[in-house]
C-alpha cells in the first residue's frame, strides 16, 4: 500500500506519499480500506517532531479515518467485511489501509457519506469525553470528565471555527446549553453563529473575559473548552463562573502558566487537562461506545453534522497541513485516498 511518511522533522514538504508494507490486523483488530482521513493539529506536531505516536502505534500521521472493513482479526465480532465504518486511531490514517482496535471502530452514520465520516471520530470523541461524559466505575472513572455541561449552562469554546469547535457548538446546543465562542474575524464568527453559537467574540479585537461578562450579566462561563493552554490560563480563570470547570485540551499558547489558586478557590472551580491519543485501549473503547450511544443518534437525526472545509487528495497532505497552519479553514480538512471507495 501507499501512505504519507515523514522523512524527517520539518515543514509540510517532508510529507511524502510512498510505498510501505501493508498492515496486518492482530487479535481484536479491524483492518480498514481507507476512504478518507482528517487533518488534526496533532498531525502537524508529529510532522515537526514534537508529538511521537504512542508505543506500538502506526508511525504515519492521521488520528481518524473512514472506509470499509477489509478483514477481521482473531476474536473480532460485530463487524463484517465490506461494512462502511469510521475509526478513532492512534496513528496511520494517512494511508490506504490501517489496522485499528475493534473498540475504536464506529459505523458510518446514516445520512453521512463515507468520506465525510472521516471528520467525525476525533472531534466527537474529544468533545464528548471532555465536556459531557459523567459517571464511570472504580476502574474507568478517569475516562470521564468533571465538566459535565448541563442544559441552560454557558459553554465557552476557544477556536469555535476549528474541527473541535464546530462540533462542540453543535453538541452543546443539542443538550440545551448556551454557547460562546472565540474565533478570528467576522467570517469565522458568522459560521459559528450558523451552527448555533449565541455569543460571538473576535479574539483579535475583543477581550473575551470582558465580552463574556457583558453577555452573561457578570456570571461568566460554567464550562470552558480550551485549546490554547498557558497563554489563556489566567484569563480563563477570570472568565469562569462560580463552580465553573475549565477543560484544557490543547497547548497552542504554551505549556507553562501561573495558576491563581486563590481565584480558583474563591470560585470553587476545577481545572482538568486531558489528551485522547495516549489513553489506554479500554478508555478509548469506553469513549467510543459513549459517542456511539449519545452522539450518533444526533448525527443520524440531522441535529449534528460534520463540518468539512475542503477535501484534498491524500498525496497532497502537505497542502492540507499548510491550510491548517494558516488558519484559513472552518471545520475539518479531509484527505481522500486515491483508490478509496466512496
Automatic annotation (TrEMBL):
<dbReference type="InterPro" id="IPR020843">
    <property type="entry name" value="ER"/>
</dbReference>
<dbReference type="Pfam" id="PF00107">
    <property type="entry name" value="ADH_zinc_N"/>
</dbReference>
<keyword id="KW-0560">Oxidoreductase</keyword>
<dbReference type="GO" id="GO:0070402">
    <property type="term" value="F:NADPH binding"/>
</dbReference>
<dbReference type="InterPro" id="IPR036291">
    <property type="entry name" value="NAD(P)-bd_dom_sf"/>
</dbReference>
<dbReference type="InterPro" id="IPR013154">
    <property type="entry name" value="ADH-like_N"/>
</dbReference>
<dbReference type="InterPro" id="IPR011032">
    <property type="entry name" value="GroES-like_sf"/>
</dbReference>
<dbReference type="InterPro" id="IPR014189">
    <property type="entry name" value="Quinone_OxRdtase_PIG3"/>
</dbReference>
<protein>
    <submittedName>
        <fullName>NAD(P)H-quinone oxidoreductase</fullName>
    </submittedName>
</protein>
<dbReference type="GO" id="GO:0016651">
    <property type="term" value="F:oxidoreductase activity, acting on NAD(P)H"/>
</dbReference>
<keyword id="KW-0521">NADP</keyword>
<dbReference type="InterPro" id="IPR013149">
    <property type="entry name" value="ADH-like_C"/>
</dbReference>
<feature type="domain" description="Enoyl reductase (ER)">
    <location>
        <begin position="10"/>
        <end position="335"/>
    </location>
</feature>
<dbReference type="Pfam" id="PF08240">
    <property type="entry name" value="ADH_N"/>
</dbReference>
Amino acid at each position: 500500500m501507499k501512505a504519507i511518511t515523514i522523512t524527517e522533522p520539518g515543514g509540510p514538504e517532508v510529507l511524502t506519499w510512498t510505498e510501505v508494507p501493508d498492515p496486518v490486523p492482530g487479535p481484536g483488530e479491524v483492518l480498514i480500506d481507507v476512504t478518507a482521513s482528517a487533518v488534526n493539529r496533532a498531525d502537524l506536531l508529529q510532522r515537526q517532531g514534537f508529538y511521537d505516536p504512542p508505543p506500538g502505534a502506526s508511525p504515519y500521521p492521521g488520528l481518524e479515518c473512514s472506509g470499509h472493513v477489509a478483514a477481521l482479526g482473531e476474536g473480532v465480532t460485530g463487524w463484517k467485511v465490506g461494512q462502511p465504518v469510521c475509526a478513532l486511531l492512534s496513528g496511520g490514517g494517512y494511508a490506504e489501509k490501517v489496522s485499528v482496535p475493534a473498540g475504536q471502530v464506529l459505523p458510518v452514520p446514516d445520512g453521512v457519506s463515507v468520506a465525510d465520516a472521516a471528520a467525525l471520530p476525533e472531534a466527537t470523541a474529544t468533545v464528548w469525553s471532555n465536556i459531557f461524559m459523567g459517571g464511570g466505575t472504580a476502574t474507568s472513572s478517569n475516562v470521564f470528565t468533571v465538566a459535565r455541561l448541563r442544559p441552560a449552562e454557558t459553554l465557552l469554546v476557544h477556536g469555535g471555527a476549528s474541527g473541535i469547535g464546530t462540533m462542540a457548538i453543535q453538541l452543546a446546543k443539542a443538550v440545551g446549553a448556551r454557547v460562546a465562542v472565540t474565533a478570528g474575524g467576522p467570517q469565522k464568527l458568522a459560521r459559528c453563529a450558523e451552527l448555533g453559537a449565541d455569543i460571538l467574540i473576535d479574539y483579535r479585537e475583543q477581550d473575551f473575559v470582558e465580552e463574556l461578562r457583558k453577555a452573561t450579566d457578570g456570571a461568566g462561563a460554567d464550562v470552558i473548552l480550551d485549546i490554547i493552554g498557558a497563554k489563556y490560563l489566567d484569563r480563563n480563570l477570570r472568565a469562569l463562573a462560580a463552580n465553573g470547570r475549565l477543560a484544557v485540551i490543547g497547548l497552542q499558547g504554551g505549556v507553562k502558566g501561573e495558576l491563581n489558586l486563590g481565584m480558583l478557590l474563591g470560585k470553587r472551580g476545577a481545572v482538568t487537562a486531558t489528551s485522547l491519543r495516549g489513553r489506554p485501549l479500554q478508555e478509548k473503547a469506553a469513549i467510543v461506545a459513549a459517542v456511539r450511544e449519545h452522539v450518533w443518534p444526533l448525527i443520524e437525526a440531522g441535529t449534528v453534522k460534520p463540518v468539512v472545509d475542503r477535501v484534498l487528495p491524500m498525496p497532497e497532505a502537505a497542502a492540507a497541513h499548510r491550510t491548517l497552519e494558516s488558519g484559513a479553514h472552518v471545520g475539518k480538512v479531509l484527505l481522500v485516498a486515491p483508490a478509496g471507495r466512496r
